[in-house]
């Protein structure tokens, strides 16, 4: 019987696929496999029996990859399984970065009494004005499943979309709309685009990618979205640029104490993949991967 330790809550739609040959739970010690979503395994002591870890999500920065390689532990993730969910939240982020939706909603909450209906029209309409997305340039850094989903959706909104990924061209990216333009380099994205959205993993190369130097190349009033990983952005440099008005809005799915409650910064608590559909998809894919490996030795990262 194989033993699977759960480090987070994982959708039962996936767990049901294990069947009777598996013992699955949070209190298992000598596990053959681990299923994890957001818990960090960096300080976790792996038992000698552990053969595989599957992450129900795309990023693997909560797993000590080098240690796993040294110890022969296979690591799986679920690329694409939550791409639609993240894409939808990024579209929401684009609108939040542009139209003064949050400011308007917050202001309405301050209203009281019967005079407020006229105030709504008077102040609301004139004060909370923000540009449309149609015709604006969107730069996408990272052309994996999520970047491609976002690019295709933004094309449908009438945006002029540029994609950049050091490892793959727009033409070679799977499922990419032919209307997306290939940016030759990151500088093109920085200097040309009105909106920039990050969809790259957190690696040595991408850490601090958005910093004073890259911000200086950007247009005044640029809007930046980060639904990838918090450390792709140097938050000190971003906050300084937001205060100066160089960055009109920074929208991120990664909360940290320095960026919460700042004007023109919208912070969400890592909600990108938080839909039942995406949780089911990720769980199904992660369970199939780890099961296949434990039963047949197949390494198929879906
Ligand atoms: C991901 O890496 O795909 C996300 O972090 C998934 C999640 O929210 O758990």
From TrEMBL:
What keywords tag this UniProt record?
NAD, Oxidoreductase
Which protein is depicted?
A: D-3-phosphoglycerate dehydrogenase
Could you cite one Gene Ontology molecular function of this protein?
NAD binding
Q: Which family does it belong to?
A: Belongs to the D-isomer specific 2-hydroxyacid dehydrogenase family.
Give the top-level enzyme category: oxidoreductase
Q: What is the lineage of its organism?
A: Bacteria, Bacillati, Bacillota, Erysipelotrichia, Erysipelotrichales
Instruction: Specify the species.
Output: Longibaculum muris
What role does this protein play? Catalyzes the reversible oxidation of 3-phospho-D-glycerate to 3-phosphonooxypyruvate, the first step of the phosphorylated L-serine biosynthesis pathway. Also catalyzes the reversible oxidation of 2-hydroxyglutarate to 2-oxoglutarate.
The EC number of this protein is 1.1.1.399, 1.1.1.95
For this protein, what reaction is catalysed? (2R)-3-phosphoglycerate + NAD(+) = 3-phosphooxypyruvate + NADH + H(+); (R)-2-hydroxyglutarate + NAD(+) = 2-oxoglutarate + NADH + H(+)
